[in-house]
Amino acid sequence: MTYCVGMRLDKGLVFMADTRTNAGVDDIASVKKMYTWEVPGERVITLLSAGNLATTQAVIGILEEHHKHRDERRPDIYQTDTLFQTAKLIGDMVKRIIKDASDGGPEQTAGTFHATFIMGGQIKGERPRLFFIYPEGNFVEATDENPFFQIGENKYGKPILIRAYEKDMSFETAVKLLLVSFDSTLKSNLTVGMPLDLQLYEKDSLKRGFEKRFLPNDPYFLAVASGWSDALKAAFAELPDFSFDQ
Amino acid sequence: MTYCVGMRLDKGLVFMADTRTNAGVDDIASVKKMYTWEVPGERVITLLSAGNLATTQAVIGILEEHHKHRDERRPDIYQTDTLFQTAKLIGDMVKRIIKDASDGGPEQTAGTFHATFIMGGQIKGERPRLFFIYPEGNFVEATDENPFFQIGENKYGKPILIRAYEKDMSFETAVKLLLVSFDSTLKSNLTVGMPLDLQLYEKDSLKRGFEKRFLPNDPYFLAVASGWSDALKAAFAELPDFSFDQ
């Protein structure tokens, strides 16, 4: 499994992804799930992936190949005019890759090759945008009402996102929020694992923003994880106990 | 969907269940998911159910029928000598009911008729015990290492249970913990809904304990829900923000 979040703020975009991949609990590896394409001053596009590793790597591989071996008839992630077009390009590719893999025969279980993606960034002339791309190839865009997307093991870390997200929060606070959400997920599910990749995109900068890989012994991550555990216990203790007399 | 929790404490057992049932989001109803069989001074058995409503109602219905129309050859939930036997009785019944329903033909999707159960209580001569019963009819018992079970939509409400559960907590604190866990789930998933049914079982009492149905406007539930939201936000605000300088 996987846990990735893409979040839209007034200040720009924030992406975080875990790096664990597994085929069964005894076949675990670490893999990058965050990819970025950049032309400084012109476009920055970041992609987070969850699901079948063969499918997600095929998507990345074909995007890279199409760019290296340019051909007018083939779409190139460096050539799209808008992020909507970029989402359509990736969506079509995902749909085709899953369809090809599923042609293997009747023994294939529906959903085996599924993958979902969060794609966001900015192309000059547009505002920053954030999309959720489904295995079926269609996609939705983040709005003020739905300002963040999660893919993979999304449930454990959702309650804190719902409660603490604010669109005008700083990048510093947003990183804290994501680490709390990831910590809840890491504590609850073995198939999500450290290290965690972080990437920020500052609105209208049109260049890659701050990037960091949080290792398991990262002092700030450890401070957030233990601080949050203590704070939760203290907050819980302060709530009034139930009373049988009411 | 559904959310139910059964929890083992030093003081006894605590059960909580939501009451929403749905077949699609436009076909919602309220249904009881908590059933109790009691012979004061001799046995108390409480059952929580999640999954296909036809399956769970069939289990309850057959348990009731077997008792009303007694027959030595048929197992009766009032006649088992231990809770282990009770779990086996219910497990066998669940397995048979799902198998019968799945015989309908090849158009049936695997898992359509699945249901899971939490069963707990005490039979004279034993300590209080708590079991998780799978759709396959087998079951596991709660231990000191795994002191609570969740069925249904279990992920949203799990992080707080992991962090705040303590085996020597009071019933009053346990009810608070369950309401916090249910509140996180209610806020995240529409298929879990109020009212919430609570039942306590006091160790060695061998009689039904305190019961309450929390309605949506219950003052204590509202105090916990809003208090927890505020406390989380305050706890989150107090954690140190990320710094780009580190």
TrEMBL record, chains A, B:
A cellular-component GO term for this protein: proteasome core complex
InterPro entries: Ntn_hydrolases_N (IPR029055), Proteasome_sua/b (IPR001353), UCP009120_prtse (IPR016545)
Pfam entry (one): Proteasome
GO BP terms in the entry: proteolysis involved in protein catabolic process
UniProt protein name: Peptidase
